[in-house]
Amino acid sequence: MADTRTSAYGSRAVYGSLAYDFDNPELYQEEYSAPPEHTAPPQTQERTRAVPRAGAHVRSRQAVYPLAMVGILAAAVLLVIAIMAQIQLFDISSKTVELEGQLKELQTEQTKLQIAYEGAFNLTEIEQYATSELGMQKPSADQIYYIDTSSPDKAVIINQTNNDGFFGRVSDFLSGIGAYFR
Q1: Is the dihedral of CA 73, 75, 79, 82 positive or negative?
Q2: What Cα–Cα distance (Å) separates residue 11 from each residue in 1, 5, 7, 19?
Q3: Given its phi and psi angles, is residue 16 left (phi above 0), alpha (psi -120 to 50 degrees) or beta?
Q4: What span, in angstroms and rounded, lies between the C-alpha atoms of 114 and 108?
Q5: Are 163 and 169 in contact (CB under 8 A)?
Q6: Were both Cys, which of 38, 44, 121, 130 would link to 136 (CB 3.0–4.6 Å)?
Q7: Taking the mean position of all CA atoms in its chain, how far away is CA 30?
Q8: Using an 8 Å Cβ cutoff, are 143 and 137 in contact?
């Protein structure tokens, strides 16, 4: 939309500042009127603006905080501990693999020895060796005796001496030691 206001201020081209030029009131007749004589002219305030210089850049001083150093040292210590743990884990796992290989070899050897043991104690071969080489015979019916153990067991303590007191116990102890060395 076009601006429909017609004013002298908006209709002219501007080649500079749009600030009021109080020294030249003819330019702004509509907007500028002379103040009444009984009032004081408005006072203008000067405004200054600080423009930073491009070449004068101030660098801030960088400081390392002690707590940050403690944190960095703690992280470094934890990193070293983690690396050492990995080394120990690798060492233990390699020993485990080696021991598992030895275990398989020993289990194989155990199986072979068990087979050899069972072959060495074959009962039919032992019986044949005893009858043919050693001249042994199977027992006859009159050579077999059975023992009756149905009676209960009993024990009788014979010669119980009562050695009360310190000297009796010491003498028993010394006699036991003497019996041991004879």
Answers
A1: positive
A2: 16, 9, 6, 16
A3: left
A4: 10
A5: yes
A6: 130
A7: 85
A8: no
Cα distance between residue 156 and residue 154, in whole Å: 7
Task: Give the Å distances, CA to CA, from 100 to 87, 107, 132.
Answer: 20, 10, 48
Task: Enter the tokens of residue 90.
Answer: 């690798």
Task: Determine contact, residues 20/44, Cβ cutoff 8 Å.
Answer: no
User: How far is the C-alpha of 93 from the C-alpha of 85, rounded, in Å?
Assistant: 12
pLDDT in tens, the chain (182 residues): 455 555 555 666 666 666 666 667 666 665 545 555 555 556 666 777 766 666 656 667 778 788 999 999 999 999 999 999 999 999 999 999 999 999 999 999 999 999 888 877 778 888 888 999 998 888 888 888 888 888 888 887 777 666 567 888 888 888 888 887 87
CA distance 165 to 171: 10
